[in-house]
Amino acid sequence: MLTVLPATRVAIAALIPHQGAMCLLDCVERLDADSILCASASHRDAANPLRRDGLLPAVAGIEYAAQAMALHGALSDGEAQPIGFLSALRGLRLSVERLDDIAGPLAVAATVEARERRGMIYGFSVSSDGRALLEGQAVVVLPERGP
Fold first, then answer.
1. Suppose 15 and one of 64, 74, 95, 108 were both cysteines; which one would form an S-S bond, judging by CB atoms 3.0 to 4.6 Å apart?
2. Is residue 2 part of a domain?
3. Residues 111, 35: contact at Cβ < 8 Å?
4. What pLDDT digit, counting tens, does each position of 105-116 carry?
5. pLDDT for residue 1
């Protein structure tokens, strides 16, 4: 596992498949073998690429969580992540309709619940100022790696 946590979007983008404005996470606040906690203020950015008709729907929080999962994988493996596939969502609970009107930074958490050679199951949540905004469980499938 890497010992230096990425503290900027540029450093994060070097480790995940999401580039430019599509890299939504600002920094890693906490990391261990099974979990990651990231922070982001990009939900308030008028140029956020996930906005539709000027609004950022709460369901966009799934992308924030998926990026945290990819970043956790990269930091755990010590190398940039291949493009993975979000193959299933379970137990998705949205507590708000949109994210762009949330004043505080987003806390994006992901915790490994099961791990296999070609994927994992993560529990995830997006919150702000201690208030849960969305949470659920995601199955991530990774491409076959070479020999």
1. 74
2. no
3. yes
4. 999 999 999 998
5. 46
